């Protein structure tokens, strides 16, 4: 039952040939070669695979391709145009808010969505926006500082 | 550095350094680059640290135990200094001056108005300063010293070199490897540790790999591999039985032998008269719980050689273990390090490398990438062992300790590849001709111990007995998790010190200082206390010197204990000797402390009598953003003293500080981790 699923990924129209049941994450990392979105748990509980789907933070690991037909997907690679970096990405580097960095893609997607909706969030709002993202190395407070800095 | 190709200069002046240590998310490659750049007198931008591999560079064993900087720093410095000296000698020869008159800074050699670069000099300097050349080693030490310059990078917060790729989402992790013709593999683990495959219904349209009870599938894409794995699961029937202990009575399990008894301190004389105080503490099994499941790739070449890509902590020990299980000459295997997600000890990185090799053996020369599932990662990777501790102290009228007796029961903390004379890789135990692995063992004293790491108190007690009891038979796999036994032992010692201080009506900080002669320890305690505003109500203190020889660390915790226990703030003072990268040390302390808050408040591996059951983030919750405390780090600097690691210094002190803060805040003493709502209620009862 393979078909073609049309969607906009990081601003470009793409036609994905994967089975419609395929998780969006596998389409991104496999067929489309966008490996910045990470696999963490496969059931939407850790946030490593977060992308923006029509602007909403969505777990790509348990979203089937069929649900993306005609919709707009933004991954970490598409947070800023070309080789430029989103203010959140720049602030993460400035604050050195990373250790292993595996969770950062999903965290930055959550943070970018927050800033799009609320350009001047307070600390409580940042923490709430990131609470579905797990980080094991313990850089949470640095990330919060970075997101607040990005909002300045 | 043993490899003669550890440091080479390219024609364009870029200096390639083949690391013996591996990046685990801790930033070690950045710190080593700083050391190399200073020893070379080079610009940091011209130093490239190449990932470890078996076929080139030094064999530095595993990257663990907070030893990377102390272990790798000096030989790296020497190797780089030899290259610098050879180039300086070449410059001196060209300019007709004495080598001692040549200086080098930021990659520029200079004598008066004469200048040259590494690119100019390396080729002619020849010996080892150029790829393919013989080792540099002929430069006299006097020459090396003559061009020694003040450090430019060591001691400075250089940004992490690996972070820009990770922030931009560029391929960097082993999970991102896309080798030409790569297949994807999945492994079907047995339903429990004791299960053995009884029957497999043939699946002619799947590419099944079977060796005894080891089962895997190959597919062209990841989603196909996942679907194939689901079908394989339904096709497998297992002989199975219950073998696990009672999760709710680990104290009995750990204290029922057989044990190996390890005497760390033998008491001098009989226990003196005085008031006897005792307490018992415990921790459960704890999982690594890295955000990425383990992953590896492997390829069998037509000439019978095997290539492996792995986020292992040690490419050489992994190669040896693979060679033994596969019956292959070590020289025919090349293991290359590729970064994974955060590594906090012996996780499943080595196991999945064997899985990939076993699946790739059936792939007709195509490379195979294998990634574990989240459930397998949380249930099959080794755990940090559960532990139980008894401590008994005799105190005088003032409450001062006259005698201290300490017993700890635990599984071993190391089952790394090759450690106990067996390969130790998980799939080896499931093969048609299975390997039998003993229970995890422990490092000896010179390796910093395992279950008894930090069991010997730092305090000046007149009589001390410390004994470890290592469990020799267990169905639960345990191995190294950040700080090994130190997390539990420091939690127990520092909780008990607090109990003794409070029982004597003495201030916990003053009580510790009264028992402590070590001046660096005293300074760290005082600095943490001052920074935290010690004396305010509700604060808790914890302190240790990691392994008795490493970093000094004191933590002060401020908690809320209304419904759940929450840590509001941690103030931590740390002395790691000479600091290579201040922000790197802060980041390691902050991260280690935050992870320790998670271990202390939330974490516990769950199981029934059959299998481990905590296989997802709901059954094994870890700390969330809303629960992460503010962490303030005070660096207590001692320039000129040897650098020691920072990654494992804070865990034990933080756990004790939290428990002591809970006692100070709600007057409830919790001695069993995790320190969650149920533990508080049990302690009240």
Short structural description:
Chain A has helices spanning 24-31, 87-94, 104-117, 123-129, 140-150; strands at 5-9, 12-16, 50-53, 56-59, 72-74. By secondary structure, chain A is of the alpha+beta class.
Question: Would you kindly provide a written description of the structure presented here, covering whatever features stand out?
Answer:
With about 150 residues, chain A is an alpha+beta fold. Chain A folds into 2 domains: about 5-80, Ubiquitin-like (UB roll) (Roll), CATH 3.10.20; about 85-150, [2Fe-2S]-binding domain (DNA polymerase, domain 1, Orthogonal Bundle). Chain A is about 30% helix and about 15% strand. Chain A is built from 5 helices and 5 strands, in the order E-E-H-E-E-E-H-H-H-H. Chain A has a 5-stranded mixed sheet, with helices on both faces. In chain A, a hairpin with a 2-residue loop joins strand 3 and strand 4 (about 55-60). The termini of chain A are far apart. In chain B, a hairpin with a 5-residue loop joins strand 1 (about 5-10) and strand 2. With about 675 residues, chain B is an alpha+beta fold. Mean pLDDT of chain B is about 95; it is low at about 125-145. In chain B, the strands form 6 sheets. A 7-stranded mixed sheet of chain B has the order 9-10-7-17-14-15-16, sandwiched between helices. At the A-B interface, helix 1, helix 2, helix 3 and helix 5 of A face helix 5 and helix 14 of B.
Based on the structure given, which CATH architecture of the largest domain in chain A is correct?
A: Roll
Span of the ends, CA to CA of chain B: 58 Å
- Could you tell me which chain pair has the largest interface and how many residues each side has? A-B, 54 and 60 residues
Overall body shape of chain B: globular
Structural class call of chain B reads: alpha+beta
CATH superfamily label of the largest domain in chain A: Beta-grasp domain
Number of helices of chain A: 5
This entry's quaternary arrangement is heterodimer
Q: How many E strands of chain B?
A: 24
């Amino acid at each position: 039952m393979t078909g073609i699923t049309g969607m906009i990924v990081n601003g470009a129209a793409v036609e994905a040939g994967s089975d419609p049941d395929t998780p969006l994450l596998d389409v991104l990392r496999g067929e489309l070669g966008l490996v910045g979105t990470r696999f963490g748990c496969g059931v939407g509980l850790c946030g490593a695979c977060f992308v923006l789907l029509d602007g909403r933070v969505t777990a790509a690991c348990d979203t089937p391709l069929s649900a993306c037909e005609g919709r707009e997907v933004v991954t970490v690679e598409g947070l800023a145009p070309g080789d430029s970096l989103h203010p959140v990405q720049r602030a993460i580097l400035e604050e050195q808010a990373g250790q292993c960095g595996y969770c950062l893609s999903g965290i930055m997607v959550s943070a970018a969505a927050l800033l799009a909706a609320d350009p001047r969030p307070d600390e409580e709002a940042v923490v709430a926006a990131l609470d579905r993202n797990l980080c094991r190395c313990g850089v949470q407070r640095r990330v919060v500082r970075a997101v607040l800095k990005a909002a300045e | 550095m043993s490899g003669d190709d550890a440091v080479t200069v390219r024609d364009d002046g870029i200096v390639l350094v083949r690391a013996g240590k591996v990046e685990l998310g801790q930033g070690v490659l950045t710190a080593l680059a700083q050391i190399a750049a200073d020893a070379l007198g080079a610009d940091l931008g011209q130093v490239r640290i190449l990932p470890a591999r078996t076929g080139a560079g030094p064999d530095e064993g595993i990257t663990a135990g907070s030893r990377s900087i102390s272990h790798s720093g000096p030989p790296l410095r020497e190797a780089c200094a030899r290259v610098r000296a050879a180039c300086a000698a070449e410059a001196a020869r060209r300019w007709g001056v004495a080598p001692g008159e040549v200086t080098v800074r930021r990659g520029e050699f200079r004598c008066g108005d004469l200048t040259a670069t590494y690119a100019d000099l390396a080729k002619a300097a020849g010996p080892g300063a150029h790829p393919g050349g013989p080792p540099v080693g002929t430069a006299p030490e006097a020459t090396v010293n003559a061009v020694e310059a003040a450090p430019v990078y060591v001691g400075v917060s250089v940004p992490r070199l690996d972070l820009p790729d990770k922030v931009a989402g560029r391929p960097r992790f082993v999970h991102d490897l896309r080798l030409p013709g790569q297949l994807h593999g999945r492994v079907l683990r047995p339903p429990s540790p004791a299960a053995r495959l009884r029957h497999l219904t043939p699946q002619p349209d799947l590419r099944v790999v079977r060796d005894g009870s080891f089962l895997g599938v190959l597919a062209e894409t990841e989603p196909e591999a996942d679907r194939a794995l689901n079908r394989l699961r339904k096709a497998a029937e297992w002989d199975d039985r219950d073998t696990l202990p009672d999760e709710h009575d680990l104290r009995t399990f750990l204290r029922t032998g057989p044990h190996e008894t390890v005497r760390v301190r033998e008491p001098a004389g009989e226990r003196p008269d005085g008031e006897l105080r005792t307490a018992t503490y415990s921790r459960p099994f704890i999982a690594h719980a890295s955000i990425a499941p383990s992953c590896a790739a492997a390829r069998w070449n037509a000439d019978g050689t095997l290539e492996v890509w792995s986020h292992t902590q040690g490419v050489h020990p992994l190669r040896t273990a693979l060679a033994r299980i596969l019956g292959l000459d070590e020289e025919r295997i090349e293991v290359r390090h590729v970064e994974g997600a955060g590594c906090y000890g012996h996780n499943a990185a080595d196991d999945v490398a064997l899985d990939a090799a076993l699946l790739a053996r059936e792939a007709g020369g195509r490379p195979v990438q294998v990634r574990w599932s989240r459930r397998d990662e949380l249930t099959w990777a080794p755990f940090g062992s559960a532990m139980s501790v008894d401590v008994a102290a005799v105190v005088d009228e003032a409450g001062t300790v006259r005698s201290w007796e300490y017993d700890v029961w635990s599984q071993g903390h190391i089952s790394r590849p090759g450690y106990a004379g067996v390969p130790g890789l998980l799939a080896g135990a499931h093969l048609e001709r299975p390997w039998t692995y003993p229970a995890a063992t422990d490092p000896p004293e010179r390796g910093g111990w395992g279950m008894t790491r930090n069991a010997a108190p730092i305090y000046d007690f007149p009589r001390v007995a410390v004994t470890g009891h290592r469990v020799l038979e267990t169905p639960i796999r345990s191995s190294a998790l950040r700080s090994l036994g130190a997390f539990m032992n420091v939690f127990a010692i520092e909780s008990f010190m607090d109990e003794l201080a409070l029982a004597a009506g003495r201030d916990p900080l003053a009580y510790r200082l009264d028992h402590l002669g070590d001046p660096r320890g005293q300074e760290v305690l005082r600095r943490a206390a001052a920074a935290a505003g010690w004396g305010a109500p509700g604060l808790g203190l914890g302190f240790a010197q990691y392994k008795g020889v490493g970093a000094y660390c004191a933590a002060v915790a401020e908690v809320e204990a209304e419904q759940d226990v929450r840590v509001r703030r941690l103030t931590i003072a740390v002395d790691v000797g000479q600091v290579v990268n201040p922000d790197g040390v802060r980041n390691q302390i902050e991260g280690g402390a935050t992870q320790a808050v998670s271990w202390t408040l939330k974490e516990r591996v769950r199981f029934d009598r059959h299998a481990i059951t905590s296989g997802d983030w709901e059954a094994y919750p870890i700390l969330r953003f809303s629960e992460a405390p503010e962490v303030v780090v005070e660096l207590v600097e001692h320039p000129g003293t040897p650098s020691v690691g920072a990654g494992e210094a804070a865990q034990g002190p933080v756990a004790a500080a939290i428990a002591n803060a809970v006692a100070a805040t709600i007057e409830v003493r919790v001695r069993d981790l995790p320190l969650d709502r149920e533990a508080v209620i049990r302690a009240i009862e």
